[in-house]
Amino acid sequence: MTAEINTFEEEFIPRRRAWLLLALFAICFISYCVLTYLLPHNRYVRYQQLADSDLFRSRWVYERIHYDKTPIDVAIIGSSRLETSVSAPTLERELSEQLGRPIHVANLAIPEEGRNLHYLVARELVENHPETRVILLSVVERADVSHPAFRYLANPVDLLRAPLFINHYYFLDAAFLPYRQMSYFVQTLFPAWFGVSRAFRKDYMGTGFDTTYSFYLPSGKLVDRYHVMPQDKLEANSRQMINELGGTWRQPSRWQALNFPLEQEYTKRLVDVAKKHCVEVIFVRLPFYRSPPHMYDEAFYRDLGPLLDAEQLNNNPQTYGDAGHFNRYEIDLVSAWLKESINPYLSPLKTPASCSK
Questions:
Q1: pLDDT at position 292, please?
Q2: How far is residue 189's CA from residue 194's CA, in Å, rounded to a whole number?
Q3: CA–CA dist 148, 145 (Å, integer)
Q4: Which of 43, 85, 253, 300 qualifies as a cystine partner to 326, CB 3.0-4.6 A?
Q5: pLDDT confidence of 253, banded at 50, 70, 90?
Q6: How far apart are the first and last CA of the chain?
Q7: CA–CA distance, 41 with 39 (Å, rounded to integer)
């Protein structure tokens, strides 16, 4: 008869020593996080991290703000809806003719949704371009998400000061920070090894880069602004978007509001930092194909500033490259609509000296 051995009560390591090892591990981990947080790096290196992706414009945005000496009177900030559909050179020409003096417009929109990134771009802009007087900020139906570029481009303190309760992206972004800081530190020391530069690069795409025309991504993929999506696909994709959004906007329950803090919180932060620098924020919503009216919280945005909605431009299938974005054939209509709609809100450009902080 074999004897049974009870291994469940056998101590492989004394309990006291186990707790000491756990405490040592926690101290080492916290020290690692603190030390990496304090590691310095070149901010221009940071904004080159996404240069080979669909978010490559983040590098151009930094260069336009920091290295290009051309003023920025009006900035376009937001997602690809405004990037693809609002021509900065066209708006610049129209506003200059209307106001009788040079008005400089920059389209600083970056693909993908995420109000936290829009806040970073707006703050970077107003802190470095005191002449800026108007920001056109994109509005979509619902975008309570963290922008995929936020964890790469935000200052460390911005990642830690993001809304915590209840931010489903907080710990994902915060966990990325130690590795990011170490990587940026090494890239700053040896930029040539990683294909980045600490000095302004010569391959800057220029002040007049117009996002409403076709161009090639760094990967070699063509972004065809003249593409027309077949109508049957447009109809199907539009119905899918409406179903996913749940139809007309409804006041969320307290639980839903608690779980989706990012869009409203960062919109408020953006408006606050703009006001501190005497900049007017005008919200601009461009519709997806056959989008029904009242698909977003209009009252929230109207409480913060002027809201322009181009809902009437949503029904021509020849003017959509996909269900969510206009193609080049709609640009003239968008420009004409925007020129007319923005006219009542141009007083900051007409009397820039009247603003006092």
A1: 92
A2: 10
A3: 9
A4: 85
A5: confident
A6: 91
A7: 7
Per residue in 265-315, pLDDT (tens digit) is 999 999 999 999 999 999 999 999 999 999 999 999 999 999 999 999 999
308 closest CA partner among 318, 298, 300 = 298
**For 186-199, what is the mean pLDDT?**
95
pTM of the model: 0.90
In 3D space, the residue among 106, 83, 82, 102 whose CA is nearest the CA of residue 94 turns out to be: 102
- 10 Å CB burial of residue 270 (0-12, 13-18, 19+) is buried
Domain limits of the chain?
A: 41-349
Residue type, 74: V
289, 327 in Cβ contact below 8 A?
A: no
Query: What phi-psi label fits residue 297: left (phi over 0), alpha (psi between -120 and 50 degrees) or beta?
Result: beta
Does residue 113 contact residue 77 with C-beta atoms inside 8 Å? Answer: no
The whole-angstrom separation of Cα 287 and Cα 296 is 11
Please check the confidence at residue 1 and state whether its pLDDT lies above 60.
Answer: no
Side chain identity, residue 236: A
Q: Give the phi and the psi of residue 321 in degrees, each rounded to 5.
A: -80, -30
Task: In whole angstroms, give the CA distance from residue 27 to residue 240.
Answer: 49
* Main-chain phi, psi angles of 281, to 5 degrees: -100, 125
Tokens found for residue 144: 């309570």
- Torsion angle of the four alpha carbons 316, 54, 51, 220, in this order, in degrees rounded to the nearest 10: -90
Euclidean distance between CA atoms 52 and 217, whole angstroms: 8
